[in-house]
Amino acid sequence: MTSNPIYVAIDTPDLGAATGLAATLADTAGGLKLGLEFFSANGARGVQQVAKAGGGLPVFLDLKFHDIPNTVAGAVRAACAARPAMLTVHAAGGRAMMEAACKAAADGAREHGVDRPLIVAVTVLTSLDQGDLGDIGVTRALDEQVRELAVLAKECHLDGVVCSPLEAAALRAACGPRFKLVVPGIRPEWAGGDDQKRTLTPAEALGAGADILVIGRPITAAADPAAACRRILAELPREGATC
Ligand code: C5P
User: Fold this and answer.
1) CB–CB of 162/186 below 8 Å?
2) What is the pLDDT of residues 63-94, one digit of tens each?
3) d(CA 228, CA 219)
4) What is the DSSP-derived secondary structure letter of residue 223?
């Protein structure tokens, strides 16, 4: 991981567009996030091509694994071939699944001769509200569900969680200083909100305890993505602004 906290979300199935953006951002981003949309179209080889185009920037591979422990372990081991710096699993997959994912990350890294990827958990998707939780039989308050799943992830030795910027301060308090908080839903004051409803600015999110800022469209949809990324970096408190 670099000390630059900005991970740019490249949400496209188009390999050429993704490698082009990665090359443009190689000197200004701290890392790149690729998700299911890109991976479904381009697989592990595409991930490696984007990382190469980005000059070796760390890649957060956000595939949100959620299956039986044996299958998730196999998926994590196989994903290590793409050399990700960080992978996601759903905390709702439970204790055994998360423990299997952690062990598989160490095994997979050894098998492929790469660094162990961080394993971070998704708690409650930010697209779900209290009513949606009720539909699937979860009666706890949403913020309590998020906190309890984060604490469970920590007990299972995961490296951190993905969370909304508005959850960051509570999770920092609940999970301690070393647990990584990976935070999307970030909007600089000068950018539109797009479909994100509950946002903080990059500086506010860092102040709330975020370690990694996942930022997509304010950078990728800008006329000059590298300039947008530099502008955000310049707005961060000094310790977060070193490349
Ligand atoms: O373009 P934007 O900055 O909204 O992109 C945010 C990225 O973070 C997207 O890849 C989106 O899928 C992801 N994400 C999110 N909210 C979550 C989890 C992931 O926006 N709760």
Assistant:
1) no
2) 999 999 999 999 999 999 999 999 999 999 99
3) 5
4) S
pTM: 0.95
- What CATH number is associated with residue 139? 3.20.20.70
Atom of ligand 1 nearest to the CA of 35: 10
Residue 1 resides in a domain: no
Residue 184's domain comprises 6-240
Which residue puts its alpha carbon closest to atom 13 of ligand 1? Answer: 184
Q: Is residue 189 part of a domain?
A: yes
In the reported structure, the alpha carbon of residue 85 is separated from the centroid of ligand 1 by a whole-number distance in angstroms of: 18
Q: Which of 70, 24, 41, 88 is nearest to 220 (CA)?
A: 24
Distance in angstroms (rounded) separating the CA atoms of residues 64 and 61 = 9
Do the beta carbons of residue 207 and residue 183 sit within 8 Å? Answer: no
Q: What is the band of 239 on the pLDDT scale with cuts at 50, 70, 90?
A: low
